[in-house]
Amino acid sequence: MAKRTRIVCIGTGGFARYHLQSMLDQARTTEIVGLVEVSDASRLATRALFAKKQAECPPFYCTLAEFVADKKTADASLICTPHKYHFENVRDSLLSGLDVLVEKPMVMNAAEARRLIDLRDKTGKLLVVGFPGSLSPAVKKAKELIRAGTIGKVTGVAAWVHQRWKAATVGLWRQDPKIAGGGFLFDTGSHMINTVVELLGEDVAEVSAVLDNCGTPVEINAAVGGRTTSGIMFSLAAAGDSIQCISDVMVFGDAGVIQTGIWGERLNVKTTAKPEFKPVKLPPSLGVWGQFVKVRQGRMGNPCPPEIGLRFAKLMDMIYASAKKGRVIRA
């Protein structure tokens, strides 16, 4: 059996606890050795999670430096802090000799992304961005089907996501642009943008965007259109003042259609010969953390390196510039 990955989790908010629960269910491959958190409320909720799983809660620290000073040993860090702090937490983890899984979006801007790519190269450590789409078996298989010509020539891509995001984030850091970097499109919508570009498999040549803050400091609704370098057109719709959290991604070809979600949560295909959607059988997945462990073990290549984080940051810069200037922005 492969050696267990010893993990220190930096940030233990709601989504971090989702990951921690998954890790506790993967105890054969994962050992949680430390938790970095400054919020008493988050610490309390995290202890309750460990108690519910009948597992011993590891010690808490206020900083990664404090964890290292305590002479604790880890192999990797999971970073789930507010977006503004991703850069420094990834930087400090790499410099501490840790492999890193960082929640999306990787950083606040392209400049930070380039600095982390340089640091990854200098340290030789692993850096994976936690985009579920790039890490999902469904999106991987969809890309294989596209390359195999299952739906013929790709003629367009359309995607949408809606969520009760505006009401759920009132008064929280996600509506503070200095900490969050953006709003619904930058947050939940980042999954949509990343998965669409992943499926397109090409650089984006031009973008046109309309954003609506809906009375908040950040964008809530968004309509984005664009074209890749080969001329494939795509459209993105984000509605952050809605209900639930549901998405859809459609890849249109001249001989068929592929349907998935922005998190790669399903995969259906229909073709000229079989014009009704049929689900595609996929290998089982242990989620983002399980995929990260596979990459660390050398069982698969890194499907979401920091270059993906840079790709997203550059595209978001184009989207924001288009919305601000009211015109098409070209790469």
Would you kindly provide a written description of the structure presented here, covering whatever features stand out?
This protein is of the alpha/beta class. The chain folds into two domains: 5-131, Rossmann fold (3-Layer(aba) Sandwich); 133-284 and 305-330, Dihydrodipicolinate Reductase, domain 2 (2-Layer Sandwich). 36% of the residues lie in helices and 27% in strands. It contains twelve helices and 15 strands. Strands 14-13-12-11-7-10-9-8-15 form a nine-stranded mixed β-sheet. α1 (14-24) packs parallel to α2 (40-52). The longest helix is centred in the last third of the chain and has 20 residues, at 306-325. The radius of gyration is 20 Å and the shape is globular. The mean pLDDT is 97.
Structure described in brief:
The protein has 331 residues and is of the alpha/beta class.
Structural class: alpha/beta
**Which architecture of the largest domain would the CATH scheme give at its second level?**
2-Layer Sandwich
Which percent range fits the helix content?
A: 25-40%
Relevant CATH superfamily of the largest domain:
Dihydrodipicolinate Reductase, domain 2
Instruction: Evaluate the radius of gyration.
Output: 20 Å
List the helices and strands and how they pair.
Layout: E1 5-10, H1 14-24, E2 30-36, H2 40-52, E3 60-61, H3 64-69, E4 76-79, H4 86-95, E5 99-103, H5 110-123, E6 127-130, H6 132-135, H7 137-147, E7 154-164, H8 165-168, H9 177-180, H10 189-200, E8 204-212, E9 221-228, E10 233-239, E11 241-253, E12 256-260, E13 267-271, E14 278-279, H11 287-296, H12 306-325, E15 329-330
Parallel strand pairs: 1-2, 1-4, 2-3, 4-5, 5-6, 7-10
Antiparallel strand pairs: 7-11, 8-9, 8-15, 9-10, 11-12, 12-13, 13-14
